[in-house]
TrEMBL record:
Belongs to the UbiA prenyltransferase family. Protoheme IX farnesyltransferase subfamily. It comes from Shimia abyssi. Interacts with CtaA. This is Protoheme IX farnesyltransferase. Carbon 2 of the heme B porphyrin ring is defined according to the Fischer nomenclature.
Length: 312
């Protein structure tokens, strides 16, 4: 092999800024930022815009730190799964030790800075969120139980509570309900993805529900969790973060979500295979819109409240 080809290969595998940024799971981080911002803006009380910006920034950094530590620990299974083979560590662009160092450094930085910028209740919640996602979910539950995504989903549900605590210095019924909305949304959202990811998790030895209990059981679970989610989501309309805008939005979205879940429940594997899991993919896409619009409605109620147009 010539020197030129060696140099070309080395430059191809050399990590760039984009590779290090990818360690932070930016798509997941965007959800963290949005829900945390809604929790912060919907909370009663005033916070200076610069402090609010810093709070969201440090929450985002903490979420990214969790992502980096998750990729470090899961590098072995990421290498096996088609969906994750191009991540920075399995692709060989970032060393596992680098990812761990970045994750640990950003975790400490984000928690300390959030505490200094806002209060240490918010910082404590952020620290617990990172610990829960990395240790409880990634290191323990994910490879141990088919209920991994049910319990582990709590990690992704904390950001609005953190945003709320950054303003109020505490936890309330409203922030717990926002947490619960995301917590109950996560299983049907993720299980729908599992249905059309087919053998990825089985190949990696991860005991997801469809691997351990079968795809029919997964479809049953999606329907049950969707029905429970609808009760919680619509019920939130009658709390301090709800109102007519939220109620109308939630009624429409939950009707569509239940219709989609019933369609998935009624489907046979043969029918799903025949059309390339069209309904499952449609339900997964709707699930992304579902969460965004629910929190968007909460934000709208909060923004219009000072003008007497939001809330009850």
């Amino acid at each position: 092999m010539s020197d030129a080809s060696i140099n070309t290969q080395a430059s191809t595998n050399e990590a760039g800024f984009g590779d290090y940024f990818a360690l932070l799971k930016p798509r997941v981080m965007s959800l963290v930022v949005f829900t945390a911002a809604v929790g912060l803006l919907a909370a009663p009380g005033y916070v200076h815009p610069f402090v609010a910006f810093c709070a969201i920034l440090f929450i985002a950094v903490g979420g990214g730190a969790s992502g980096a530590l998750n990729m470090w620990w899961d590098a072995d299974i990421d290498h096996v799964m088609k969906r994750t083979q191009n991540r920075p560590i399995p692709s060989g662009k970032v060393e596992p030790g680098e990812a761990m160092a970045i994750g640990v450094a950003l975790s400490g930085f984000s928690v300390v800075m959030l505490g200094l910028a806002t209060n240490f209740v918010a910082a404590g919640l952020l620290a617990f969120t990172i610990f829960f996602y990395v240790v409880i979910y990634t290191m323990w539950l994910k490879r141990w139980t088919p209920q991994n995504i049910v319990i582990g989903g709590a990690a992704g549900a904390f950001p609005p509570m953190i945003g709320w605590a950054a303003v109020t210095g505490g936890v309330s019924v409203e922030s717990v309900l926002m947490f619960t909305l995301i917590f109950m949304w996560t299983p049907p959202h993720f299980w729908a993805l599992c249905l059309f990811m087919k053998s990825d998790y089985k190949d990696a030895g991860v005991p997801m529900l469809h691997v351990t209990h079968g795809r029919r059981s997964t479809r049953n679970h999606i329907l049950v969790y969707t029905l429970l989610l609808a009760i919680i989501a619509v019920g939130m309309a009658f709390t301090g973060v709800g109102g007519p805008i939220y109620l109308a939005t939630s009624l429409v979205l939950n009707a569509l979500f239940i219709i989609g879940a019933v369609a998935i429940w009624r489907r046979s594997e043969e029918a799903s295979e025949a059309d390339g899991f069209k309904r499952e993919k449609s339900f997964f896409g709707l699930s992304l819109l579902y969460l965004f619009l629910h929190f968007g409605a909460i934000l709208a109620e909060s923004a219009l409240a000072p003008y007497g147009l939001g809330g009850w």
